[in-house]
Design brief:
- 74% of the residues lie in helices and 0% in strands.
- The chain starts with a helix and ends with a helix.
- The model has no long low-confidence stretch (mean pLDDT 91).
- Helix 3 runs parallel beside helix 6 and helix 10 (150-168) crosses helix 12.
- It has two domains: 2-98, no CATH class; 105-210, Arc Repressor Mutant, subunit A, CATH 1.10.10.
- The protein has helices spanning 2-7, 12-27, 32-53, 56-60, 64-67, 77-98, 105-116, 124-131, 135-146, 150-168, 173-179, 185-196, 200-210.
């Protein structure tokens, strides 16, 4: 249920997460070691389920900082709870950012399509055909519901994945371009520079230097 609330962008997830944690604490008799073990398992299970069912999350956001934490290092129940709530909050925020206007079924369906086909070329014609509506109507509806146009949304999704690929993999620019469904690496590079103010090579170099 918690994952369903998170993936629906429903703020009820926060209250449910808090209740789950409090129930765990009570069930363990406020034993810090047991709370730490239960919380680590909870984070692992949520992450694993989301990774299997909603793989776009890991393409757009790095949750490794939550999965690689030793919960036994926390010194109090409150610290563990704060960490767990931050984990749920950040998951929720990612869903809200990349699946906006979930109350509108057409927009939700369009966003889910983009997130499931990040590695393919996506055009207005592609999505209009998929939804069986006119391009003009869809453009107007998407802008009205989200505040920005559809192709800007597609670019944002693709560029965020490109950033993650450049940070984590030893990919050439043309390889990332191909992975994102762009036919020409030069076009991808122009989009990437427009989005980040850096070329793909400059972005990768700046990240490597920081680490």
């Amino acid at each position: 249920m918690l994952v369903e609330y998170i993936m629906a962008g429903d703020d009820s997830a926060l209250k449910l997460a808090e209740n789950i944690f409090d129930d765990i604490a009570i069930g363990t008799g406020d034993n810090l070691k047991r709370i730490a073990f239960a919380a680590s398992q909870l984070v692992f299970n949520i992450s694993n389920f989301i990774d299997m069912q909603y793989d776009f999350i890991n393409k757009l956001y790095d949750f490794g900082k939550f999965n690689n934490v030793d919960f036994s290092n926390f010194s109090s129940k409150d610290e563990i709870k704060e960490f767990f709530m931050t984990f749920v909050t950040e998951l929720l925020n990612v869903v809200k950012e990349y699946k906006p206007a979930q109350s509108n079924s057409l927009i939700k369906k369009a966003c889910e399509y983009v997130l499931s086909h990040i590695d393919q070329e996506i055009t207005l014609m592609t999505i209009a055909d998929y939804l069986s509506i006119s391009k003009n109507y869809f453009c107007s509806l998407f802008k009205q519901e989200t505040g920005y146009n559809f192709l800007e949304y597609v670019t944002k999704v693709k560029m965020e994945w490109a950033k993650k690929l450049l940070r984590e993999g030893n990919y050439k620019t043309y390889e990332v371009s191909e992975m994102l469904g762009y036919r020409e690496a030069s076009y991808f590079s122009r989009l990437f520079r427009k989005y980040t103010k850096l070329s793909p090579a400059e972005y990768k170099k700046s990240f490597d230097e920081q680490n």
